[in-house]
Structures are given as C-alpha cells and as structure tokens.
Design a protein that fits this description.
Number of helices: 0
Order of helices and strands: EEEEEEE
Structural class: mainly beta
Strand order of the largest sheet: 1-6-3-4
Helix content: under 10%
Radius of gyration: 14 Å
Shape: elongated
Distance between the termini: 31 Å
Oligomer: single chain
C-alpha cells in the first residue's frame, strides 16, 4: 500500500517517514515499510530504509506505528518517492496514513 508520495526535484535527497496502520480483521503477523521510487514494490533489505517486523500477533483493529529509516536518493530528474507499507496475515482492508520527509543534501 503506498501511504504517500512526494515529488522531488533533481539532486541528492535524504528521505524518511513514518505511518500508522490500523489492521484489518484477523491477526496481523508481520509489518514492513520502506521508501522507493517505484510504487508498491518491496526493495531488497535494507534498501529504502526498510523496516521489517515478523512474528507479531496483533489483533484486528489495532493501530500500529512504524518509522522508516532515512535513505539517500540521487535523482537525475523530478521523481516521485513513495512511502509504502505492507502487512502480513491480516485480512480485510487496513487503514494507513503517514508522512514522508525529505532533506536536500549538498
């Protein structure tokens, strides 16, 4: 699930974010989040500041907060950077909202 996207101009950027995920029905067994220039595509860890939590047993309807580590993006042109979340094990439709931040680097 793409939580939010940010359009960044050409240059070097440090990007990070956080989100709140309210689980669907059933029990959530895993949660992950990352930043990427590709929509809803999971990178190889630890790229994209990926955070992965496994072995969870979170009941449906629970709010869960996750922060995604900072990642450097070197962009040649204006590009969207996505903050993305994925839950495992839970059914139904989760509700997700969050923020993405970027700092231009020299």
């Amino acid at each position: 699930i793409d939580v939010v996207a940010l359009s960044l101009g050409a240059g070097n950027w440090l990007v990070y974010g956080s989100f709140v995920l309210s689980t669907g029905t059933g029990t959530m067994t895993g949660l992950r989040g990352w930043t990427s220039t590709t929509s809803a595509t999971e990178p190889t860890r630890p790229q994209g500041g990926m955070v992965l939590m496994q072995g969870l047993s979170v009941p449906g309807g629970t709010d869960f907060v996750l922060s995604v580590g900072a990642t450097r993006f070197s962009l040649a042109a204006t590009t969207n950077v996505f903050l993305t979340a994925r839950q495992d094990g839970s059914t139904g439709s989760p509700v997700v909202y969050g923020d993405i931040y970027a700092i231009r680097l020299p």
